[in-house]
Amino acid sequence: MKKSAFVKALFISFGITFLVSITPAQALFPGWKFDSGINDLNRVGLINQNGELVIDYRYYYVTPFSEGLAVARKSREGKDGYIDTTGKFVIEPTFNQAFLFYDGVAKVGTAQGLRFINKKGEELKTPKFESAHTFSCGLGAVRIDGLWGYIDTSGRLTIEPRFDWPGKFSEGLAAVVLNDGIGYIDKKGSFVIPPIYDVPSDFVQSFSNLRFSEGLAAVYISGKYGYIDKTGKFRIDPKFTKADKFSEGVAPVQYNGKYGFCNATGNFTIAPIYEDAFYFSQSRASVKQGGKWGVIDETGKMVVEPKFNFVSEFDGGLAYFSKDRTQGYIDRSGKIVWEWSAQSK
Questions:
Q1: CATH at 168
Q2: Residue 183, domain member (yes or no)
Q3: Helices (H), ranges, 215-310
Q4: What is the pTM for the complete model shown?
């Protein structure tokens, strides 16, 4: 199950594909000129979910929108700024690197290091930190003197740094690492579930899988994943070798080397027959079979045959795909609504 680079909807930055969350009202996607090259200017515009170019080719790169703003850059050697849905820069491109807005706050890279800004482009007054994560549920993790704590959207330190690794808050709780164990804290920084669970060897890549979703969180113990509720009680006993979050009532899990989808009681609703799988989004899930990616519906029916090198989760009605020397977007039926040459990046 691929994580880190593909965690929810698509954006392209420095030629790398990432995933972020967008909403139907903000469903604009980067649309590349088919034959543009890495040094070309005005090579990216914005399209809607019907594949119509709504913002002309005027950027070197641009991301989808989050909270009404997208990151954009005018040239390869230029700076990052933020545009609104009309394509106008509302926060001037002055940043070495910019990240998407969450909870009204964005992380940006400046000549002085990482900083946080609000939607006016104003820098938050925060404690001096060495590293930081993006916000969720009103809190953002920062590393101070080697340990992680959390600040609120005003920049105030609300949870003192004492953790070895921080997760993002979801459903009021965040997974954290302390003394080689994983537990869950509330927004006051108190352990609601003590750090008694094992740390997976790939925890940096898989840590986002451990967040609470639909009342359950995957935890790792004695080499297997199970699911606990918010009291720490096991609702699904540890039996999976990989596990992701619940979405639309099911979660993708690996069992005996294959991926399927289980429900909240741990029973398979879609048999483990796939080489890889993403969680359901918009009644669709991307799965890998026979070395290629396709798409299934909630019954397990293959609605888009496995023929792609990769297919992301769906968001805003589209999913990113790559196939041979092209990439672009497909809709829920598998129709290609936009594509460009792989050399464009």
A1: 2.40.128
A2: yes
A3: none
A4: 0.89
